[in-house]
Predict the structure.
Amino acid sequence: MRILRKLGFNLFTWILVLLVAFPLVWMILTSLKPQTELFRIPPTWLPETVTFEHYWRLLTETPFLIYFRNSVVLATTTTVFVVVLGAIGAYSLVRFAYRGRETLATLVLFTYLLPSVVLIIPLYLMMVELGLSNTLASLVLAHTTFALPYALWLLRSFMEGVPEDLESAALVDGASRMGAFRDVILPQLLPGIISTALFTFILSWNEYLYALVLVNSDAVRPLTTGVMTMLISAFNIEWSLLMAASVMMSLPLIVVFAFLQSYLTRGFGAGAVKG
Amino acid sequence: MAEVVLKDIRKEFGTFVALERLNVAINAGEFVALLGPSGCGKSTTLRMLAGLDFPTAGEISIDGRVVNDVAPGKRDIAMVFQSYALYPHMTVAQNIAYPLKKRGVARPERDAAVAKTATLLQLEPLLNRKPRQLSGGQQQRVALGRALVREPKVFLLDEPLSNLDAKLRSYMRAELIELHRRIGKTMVYVTHDQLEAMTMADRIAVMHDGRLQQFDEPEIIYNQPANRFVAGFIGTPSMNQLEGAIAGSSFVINGEQVPINRALYEQALKDGPVVLGIRPENVSLSGGSLPATVRLVENAGHEQIVTVEIPGGHRLLAREASGQRPSVGQTCQIGFDADFIHLFQPGENGSRFETTGQAHVIPMQAQRSASDES
Ligand SMILES: Nc1ncnc2c1ncn2[C@@H]1O[C@H](COP(=O)(O)OP(=O)(O)OP(=O)(O)O)[C@@H](O)[C@H]1O
Ligand SMILES: [Mg+2]
């Protein structure tokens, strides 16, 4: 009986995994098939001939690398912004007593109650006012606005897990407030910072809507909108190129995930269990 | 000269008054215990001494210098926290070296100082471990080491032993006394454990509800408690307190008379309500004049604590050498050793009538105003 149940659970889990993984696997397989094999019926499961021609075309004949660079700059800058602001903000929310502290913390989440579509137009107009329209900076700011609130809450729950006595001890031991923050609080906060950074990076890397509205020249387009506009037109979708691009877009995330996965899961459980 | 002086300290948290009119002067090299029940403001006092909290009013000076506006790191103090507050990501050696590092001590001297402290506290085998790999007692020693390493003027300790089990606690208590004797530094030690305070301190500051009740040597605190609170707080089991009145030259409770010393009687209010205090060890179960019934006998091996009930339903504790065991329900005539009878003013926290000399001025004043309000 017990073995059957175990088997059942395992089967169920594997089916879920397959469901989730299949599109990814198919994406990789498709990107390796030559154009002629792509639409064959019945489809070939494994490519009969493996080719890297799509990757090569993508890298040499399209602005893919520019988009890639833009995405890296965009996601990294946003992440740095969000982590720095989030850590300082969370510190303030946890350590200092001032009027309206809780209200402020709640209000910050208000952003998420409004659909992005509602926020985009005002944001766009603001960027124009600031002279930032059609720049990466405008996207960094926009991504920061929607990643920061969540980051603030995530970091706040981590910060609450850092005993105040630790900071007091550092102060008594002769550290300045900044020194205590750097020497004692930051190391304790590291898991929180890593999961916040991951979260922000992924969000920014995959973001589409803001990128679509706020920038419209190839020089500053990130991967998401860049690849779309490049490969998908009303009449034709370049499937093999699209798949190759998708694989390469996913690559950084997969690498980062593989290394920091344990931190991420810990971050999502932060409110419940303090490690 | 007094090394640490708290002058007219007042501390408010919002509308809540945590400390009021706190005056304490601690001499150089003295071991002072801040003793009081939970929430009486001990930690707050210590944190203000450390500069982690700021008094609403009043003045704090250390070594003749007013330090109200001096940052914690510049006060020449070290603190041991109740939670130890060891830096989890640093090794024991790094923990101990941290205060030196922050003061710009060069690497070789730092290492030498850490080694010396480690020897003093027998921490050498643990130097490369992380705090979470240590037992409670070891963590406590590391916390002490981090405080000791830079040889500050004043040590502040906030219930450093409260997280240890009973055996380790009494061991560390002895270690701390020994340590204080050896280094001779001023120590302010917060505890709610009267045994710790009585055994370790040169002087004890007893606090209650944010007010200093009495600040004196342990024997005086024990033998001449300033008021009903101190009398009840110090000593286990605590002092019996009977509300009655003076009539003629005796204390009268429920029509029964208890003879008291003339000297004491003359100090007390003539013919009015008073509270009689008597410690359990000064209550005898026979040969007295107060009829009582034995209600409970607790045998602790070398002694027994006997609960008796006198007419009117008051219960008293008596401490007897074990041997003959009184039986529950038995009646007896209890008596009080007249030399150890205290009389207090009535009221929730009435002060004690002094038989000789002057009252302890500060605590008594603080006390009277407290009982006036109640
Ligand atoms: N930051 C604060 N905000 C509001 N009230 C506080 C704060 N810190 C302390 N208090 C209050 O001040 C009083 C004294 O607190 P304190 O921590 O000094 O008590 P304590 O004597 O150290 O008690 P314990 O033995 O439980 O540690 C308590 O009633 C407490 O609730
Ligand atoms: Mg305390």
